[in-house]
Amino acid sequence: MKKYRLLTPGPTQVPEKALLAMAKQVTHHRTPEFEALYHAVTQGLKEIFQTSGDILLLAGSGTAAMEASVTNFLSPGEKALVLASGKFSERWRDICSVYKIEPILYEVPWGERFNPAEVSHYLMQYPDIKAVFGTLCETSTGVGHDIKGIARMIAETDALFIVDGISAVGAVECRMDRWGIDILAVGAQKALMGLPGLAILGISEKAWQKSEKTKRQAFYFDLSKYRDCGRQSTTPFTPPKSLMESLALNVDALLKEGIENVWIRTANLAAAFRAGLQRISVRLTTPYPSDAMTAAYIPEEVDAKRFMKILENRFGIKFAGGQGIFKGKIFRMAHFGIIDECDILGILAAIEMTLKMLGCKVTLGSAVAAAESVLMEGDVEQGNQAKNSLCP
Amino acid sequence: MKKYRLLTPGPTQVPEKALLAMAKQVTHHRTPEFEALYHAVTQGLKEIFQTSGDILLLAGSGTAAMEASVTNFLSPGEKALVLASGKFSERWRDICSVYKIEPILYEVPWGERFNPAEVSHYLMQYPDIKAVFGTLCETSTGVGHDIKGIARMIAETDALFIVDGISAVGAVECRMDRWGIDILAVGAQKALMGLPGLAILGISEKAWQKSEKTKRQAFYFDLSKYRDCGRQSTTPFTPPKSLMESLALNVDALLKEGIENVWIRTANLAAAFRAGLQRISVRLTTPYPSDAMTAAYIPEEVDAKRFMKILENRFGIKFAGGQGIFKGKIFRMAHFGIIDECDILGILAAIEMTLKMLGCKVTLGSAVAAAESVLMEGDVEQGNQAKNSLCP
B116 to chain A nearest CA, in Å? Predict the structure, then answer.
């Protein structure tokens, strides 16, 4: 009878409807029925990505989308600016290195944020930078980067802005076209609440133009094939059709709520959760948290392994732990998907109890009370339709 | 109330148990539970591949496995012999070209088979051939190639034998280690009855040794990462865990029946189906059909589109059509998976009726009778345990 609560910043819990779609018998993908599905899901994703560019779907993990974002748009020997601060943004550097693209690193300590003015500085110093690699939400640190501000600096140049939006697109504000993102890489298993195995790319016209002049070394990741097939509502290789069908239901649900309302809802949950943590002196890893997730230190006086174990064994709460320099020091939790107010409150209470059991000074109920206050503030805010529609 | 029968040579119908596993809530993949799943499914696949080498699982289509089979084992400028005769074997040539590997083509007309002696001849003529690319079942033509015979020729050299087994491993005899296949690429959605989106590779020690000396240009497809993680029962990138869980059930079922019994069962179904077609003068595309599938010409006097349409609309039968030079001329049907005797008989009857409706001379019941005779012959054959266990 153990209840399992998957709260990691991806994969996340999949809505029941989308799960049941996975149990449908497989049908063939070279059919008008598949074309209609493909068309519907890519149209819906355009709205979520806020783009009128192409949406491409690849069978693969988020890293597949990242690699395709490199090899289709940069030739060996070209320079790229990599904004590196955390496990996933550092992956951009690693992929560039494999393809002999020269990564120029703008690094800040894990938990810090990149300064748009500094990005501009790099672009002036190296006018031959062909692309800038950024990260909307660095899942290893919980930082929400200022993609809008950075995009403004890049827009004045010929460089492409290539953004890993894997763990946050669909959860937090991200306006691909308006902000000036050229390539946006996303995984289905994060804020889009799909099952792992499907990667999604948004591609701008500026990116396609650069792609034409690029020496590509790719077959499966040759995105021009996906574009050309995609414009006929089909795919170059056998698509993971069931994963797409399931995702299509989530896309519909997000758009029915309204993508901006989803962003507000997620932000409210994040604010409430953090107010709760703050009340019991649990520190965040960063002053710039993405609303897609929270990463916070496990109090030093506490045995981190026991903390995670009690939460999992007694309360069924599955957080992600830390990676790299944060290993054994932090926990990470998503705010996107079907995690709701009642979940957030229960989880805060479980954290209170766990810390108390492990000898911390905690006033039981205090974190929960702080979160409740934040959630009730929202109720009287104007225009907060999202939450009202959830708790009518 | 329309009943849909997916009979294409992949994707194929997924057993109910495996479908229901897809509807289970997602759980995290960095857990002991995932490690146990990973271990179990790769161990089971070793038995199906008949190898003691490494089994690697990639999120991607079968083509992803093919590309990884090229880029990890051949350096730019090296020569490879490509046995090309059909849409899928020609893909080996295309992938080699992308990676600047020099493909030497041994081509035979679509529907024909490669001669092992000729392969040996090529290997002697070009002693610097580093790998031979073969195809167990060429899905576009229905040909079952003599992989065992070809392997024998290659075993005497230092060249690797890299085989696309995507549409037939698990359906027909294929003994990776004993025959001397170094790399075997498979897709989950064929004889393994999984959903599309998961690719599987078997890798020999000889292949790993060559890989160490290879100039690799890959990140997502860098198989050394999958090997090193895999030996710890984990994966380098977020795995499509639900697809693996579902596949694990099919692997169990196949091994419970016994993989050799599965081969016999599939061969019996193929023989029965072909005897039926022959009786009504429907010609195969090849004298060397793989038992994984049958590809046959739609009689010339018949409108091919109407033939396919009647089968689909009236009988719910979804065959694959032809590709390339066979487009509009043939139909293709799988014999693997949960397609059984009763299906085969019903399908033959539907073909009889459809041909008759379209003006062909067909004695109703004759194809079915021929198939029945073949299936009943099997009953008195010694050691045919597979069929007996299916029809006790």
Answer: 29
**Whether pLDDT at B384 is above 80:** no
pTM: 0.93
Give the start-to-end residue ranges of the domains of chain A: 17-257, 259-381
Q: Is the pLDDT of residue B229 over 90?
A: yes
Best of B28, B72, B98, B319 to mutate (most A CBs within 10 Å, chain A): B28
How many angstroms separate the CA atoms of B14 and B338, rounded?
8
Summarize the confidence of residues A331-342 as an average pLDDT.
97
Q: What is the DSSP letter of B379?
A: H
Q: How many residues does chain B have?
A: 392
Instruction: State residue B381's pLDDT score.
Output: 52
pLDDT at A136: 98
A62/B237 CB distance under 8 A? yes
CA atoms in the 13 A half-sphere facing the CB of A208:
15
| Helical ranges in chain B per DSSP H | 16-22, 32-49, 62-71, 87-98, 116-125, 147-155, 176-179, 205-212, 223-230, 241-257, 259-279, 304-315, 341-357, 366-380, 385-390
Q: In this complex, do A98 and B6 lie within 8 Å of one another by their Cβ atoms?
A: no
pLDDT digits (tens, 9 = 90+) for A171-206: 999 999 999 999 999 999 999 999 999 999 999 999
Each residue of B258-269: pLDDT tens digit? Answer: 999 999 999 999
Q: B95: which chain A residues are within 8 Å (Cβ-Cβ)? A: 219
Q: How far apart are CA A25 and CA A36, in angstroms?
A: 18
* Contact yes or no for B211/B302 (Cβ under 8 A): no
Q: Domain B259-381 is classified in which CATH homologous superfamily?
A: Aspartate Aminotransferase, domain 1 (3.90.1150.10)
Q: Strand B79-84's sheet: what is its strand order?
A: B54-59, B198-203, B183-187, B160-164, B129-135, B79-84, B102-107
Interface residue B197 vs chain A (CB under 8 A): yes
Q: Are strands A79-84 and B137-138 parallel, antiparallel or unpaired?
A: unpaired
B219 contacts on A by Cβ (under 8 Å): 63, 67, 94-95, 98
Distance CA A166, CA A184 (A): 8
Asked if the Cβ–Cβ distance from A23 to B19 is below 8 Å, we say yes
Residues of chain A in contact with residue B13, where contact means CB-CB under 8 angstroms, are 25-26
pLDDT at A388: 45
The answer to whether A85 and A119 have CB atoms below 8 angstroms apart is no
pLDDT on residue B379: 64
Q: Are A210 and A73 in contact (CB under 8 A)?
A: yes
Does B112 have pLDDT greater than 70?
A: yes
Residue B388 has pLDDT above 50, yes or no: no
Residue B202 forms beta bridges with which residues? B55, B184
> What b/e sequence results for B186-213 when a residue is b if at least 16 CB atoms lie within 10 Å of its CB, and e otherwise?
bbbbbbbbbbbbbbbbbbbebbbebbee
- Stated as kind and residue range, the H or E segment containing A373 is helix A366-380
Q: Look at residue B386 and tell me whether its pLDDT is greater than 70.
A: no
**CA B66, CA B105: separation in Å to the nearest integer?**
17
Q: Which residues on B lie below 8 Å from A23 (Cβ)?
A: 19-20, 22-23
Chain B residues inside the 8 Å CB shell of A11: 26, 28-29, 238, 241
B67: contact with A, CB 8 A cutoff? yes
At the topology level, CATH places domain B17-257 in Aspartate Aminotransferase; domain 2 (3.40.640)
Per DSSP (E only), the strands in chain A are 5-6, 54-59, 79-84, 102-107, 129-135, 137-138, 143-144, 160-164, 183-187, 198-203, 293-297, 317-318, 330-334
A378 reaches B (C-beta below 8 A): no
- Asked if B187 has any chain A CB less than 8 Å from its own CB, the reply is yes
ipTM summary value: 0.91
